[in-house]
Design a protein that fits this description.
two-stranded antiparallel ribbon, 0% helix, two-stranded antiparallel sheet, mainly beta
């Protein structure tokens, strides 16, 4: 079994915008139980299904 470091991980599709500098602004779901406030790793997945490096992000309400 691979990629089993975090048994509570989940896939949560998010909406986002990219500005002229390439910065990404991400919006989470309205229901905080879908993506509760905490530190989490965030992956971006390309249209080809390739994932990015996953920085730690602080999810806030």
């Amino acid at each position: 079994m691979t990629h089993s470091e975090e048994s509570n991980q989940r896939y949560e599709p998010l909406t986002f915008d990219v500005d002229d500098t390439g910065s990404l602004a991400v919006s989470g779901p309205d229901n905080p139980t879908q993506c509760p406030p905490d530190y989490s790793r965030m992956f971006a997945i390309s249209s080809a299904g390739v994932s990015s490096a996953a920085p730690w992000v602080n999810v806030t309400p």
